[in-house]
Design goal:
heterodimer; A: mainly beta; five-stranded mixed beta sheet; 9 strands; about 45% strand
Chain lengths: ~120, ~110
């Protein structure tokens, strides 16, 4: 699976949009971009994923550049409860063999939302 | 109506002991996983089971033995616990090997 690079930490004011970048310059054509987050003392939580089109759900939006070498997760109106570590993961969906379902977590971005 | 549950939540034990962590999911998923998060917060997959069949075994010591009695359960048994086994262990499940994995709340293991 392709490696990702994220800033170690970011701050955001409550109510403002949080834009979390991720670089994945070695991404392959069949690899998706996934975002998970881990709130303190909880298990990781799925947020969103996409292949090449921008995606939006009730939690966030995912913007993927045309060359697919980077992406941005957008939390449109951050709240204090969005303070967490955000992980950008690139992997083949429905993979077989040794990468069967495996999520490879990096260090992620610690997002702190302040009042 | 918790989706993925783990017991116990906390486990404190002595070096050399044998312990088990249980995981259950009520989502009807086919695939279950065990992840380990160490003190530096790195989260790494240990095992994956699909329909009770071992799919992934990521260079985990033989002291760790997963057991899947049925699709809804994946337990982790650890023999001869070592100090380095202290970590948070997360169970997860997904529909077959699809992208969305649902994680349990974690089991915090401390080996003294």
């Amino acid at each position: 699976d392709a490696k990702t690079t994220q800033p170690p930490s970011m701050d955001c004011a409550e109510g403002r949009a949080a834009n979390l970048p991720c670089n994945h310059s070695t991404i392959s054509g069949n690899e998706y971009v996934y975002w998970y987050r881990q709130i303190h003392s909880q298990g990781p939580q799925y947020i969103i994923h996409g292949l090449k089109n921008n995606e939006t759900n009730e939690m966030a939006s995912l913007i993927i550049t045309e060359d697919r070498k980077s992406s941005t997760l957008i939390l449109p109106h951050a709240t204090l409860r969005d303070t967490a570590v955000y992980y950008c993961i690139v992997r083949v969906a429905r993979a077989g063999g040794t990468s069967y379902g495996k999520l490879t977590f990096g260090q992620g971005t610690i997002l702190t939302v302040h009042p | 109506d918790t989706a993925v549950s783990q017991t116990p939540k906390y486990l404190v034990t002595q070096m050399g002991n044998d312990k088990s962590i249980k995981c259950e999911q009520n989502l009807g998923h086919d695939t279950m996983y065990w992840y380990k998060q160490d003190s530096k917060k790195f989260l790494k997959i240990m095992f994956s089971y699909n329909n009770k069949e071992l799919i992934i075994n990521e260079t985990v010591p033989n002291r760790f033995s997963p057991k899947s009695p049925d699709k809804a359960h994946l337990n982790l048994h650890i023999n001869s616990l070592e100090l380095g086994d202290s970590a948070v262990y997360f169970c997860a499940s997904s529909p077959r090997n699809q992208e969305t994995q649902y994680f349990g709340p974690g089991t915090r293991l401390l080996v003294l």
